[in-house]
Amino acid sequence: MTTTLYGIKTCDTCRKARRQLADQGVEYRYHDLREDGLDAELLDRLLAAAEWQTLLNTRSTTWRGLDDRDKQDVDATRRAS
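Above: the chain's sequence. Below: its structure in token form.
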């Protein structure tokens, strides 16, 4: 069974995870969310596996660049635009 790592190439944490998996000889497939996309089915699977707060990177430049109105009242059903 091959592990799938979901992330973004420019994310330092994702780079560290990829490096650690490679160093440990773990076979994995990398799914770049920007290049490979994130459809509703995949999002639902990820939300079933982790809390939505865990999946939302509020430290990202994308999040910080959003208008404050767009960041208000974000929850499991209302996603930031």
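The mean pLDDT is 89.
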